[in-house]
C-alpha cells in the first residue's frame, strides 16, 4: 500500500495514484466528473429512466475508493427514486481506511463513512432501501445467484490488467446480467467493443467524459 498516494484532479476531486502500476484510479481530468458521466449519467440514470424497476442489483468491478458507490447512493437519495438498491462491490485489493481518509472529498457525509467504515464480506444497510456488500475477490472468482441489472466495469484499463478485458471475463459479465441489463465502462478500445458484440451485447459508443473521446455502454 506504500505505492499509493492521493492526488487532486482537475475538477477539484481526489483520486489515488498507484506508483507500482503507474496508474491513477480515476481520470486526472476530474475523478468525480468522470464517475458521474460514465457510471451515474450513462449507467444508473439511463437505466432507471428507461426501465421501470423496483429493485436494482448493481455490481461494481473494481470498488477502489468507493467513489462510484457513494455517487450512486447519493443520486438515488437525491432523485427520491423509490428503488431498492443492492450494491455489490468487488475488489481484490481493498484500500486501507487510513488512505481513504486522506481523500478529502469536501462533501463527505454520513453515507460516505458508512460505506468505508463497514466490514467487507458483510451485508450493510446504508438506508432501509439500500444495502452494500463489499467482496475482497477477483471478479473471476466472484459468484452470485441472482442476475444484475447494472454492471459498472471499472477495473484498471487493458494496459495494466490485460486479462480482465479478455473475452472470457466479458462473457462472465454477460452471464451475470439479466435480460436488458447493462454494462458501462470508460474503456472504448476497439477490441473490447468487438468482443462485447461477439458475445451478444448491443454496444453503444457514447461521448466520453472530458479528456476521453468515447466510452461504451453494452446492453444484453
Ligand atoms: C480504476 S480503479 C477503480 C476505481 C473505483 N471504481 C472508484 O470508484 O474508486 C480499479 C480497481 O480495480 C481493482 N481490480 C484489479 N483487478 C481486479 C479484479 N480481477 N477484479 C476486480 N477488481 C479488480 C483494483 O484493485 C482497483 O481498485
List the helices and strands and how they pair.
Layout: E1 4-8, E2 14-18, E3 23-24, H1 31-50, E4 55-61, H2 67-78, E5 84-90, H3 97-101, H4 110-117, E6 123-127, E7 130-135, E8 148-153, H5 167-176, E9 177-185, H6 190-199, E10 202-207, E11 214-219
Parallel strand pairs: 4-5, 4-8, 5-7, 8-9
Antiparallel strand pairs: 1-2, 2-3, 6-7, 9-11, 10-11
Helix pairs in contact: 1-2, 5-6
This protein binds S-adenosylmethionine.
S-adenosylmethionine (SAM) is lined by residues 25, 35, 61-65, 67-68, 90-93, 138-140, 154-156, 161, 164.
Write structural notes for this entry.
- It is a single chain.
- The chain has helices at residues 31-50, 67-78, 97-101, 110-117, 167-176, 190-199, and strands spanning 4-8, 14-18, 23-24, 55-61, 84-90, 123-127, 130-135, 148-153, 177-185, 202-207, 214-219.
- The mean pLDDT is 95.
- The strands form two sheets. It has an eight-stranded mixed beta sheet with strand order 6-7-5-4-8-9-11-10, with helices on both faces. The chain has a three-stranded antiparallel beta sheet with strand order 1-2-3, with no helix packed on it.
- By secondary structure, the protein is of the alpha/beta class.
- 30% of the residues lie in helices and 29% in strands.
- It is built from six helices and eleven strands.
- The protein has one domain: Rossmann fold.
- The N and C termini lie far apart (37 Å).
- The longest helix has 20 residues, at 31-50.
- Bound molecules: S-adenosylmethionine.
- Residues 25, 35, 61-65, 67-68, 90-93, 138-140, 154-156, 161, 164 line the site of S-adenosylmethionine.
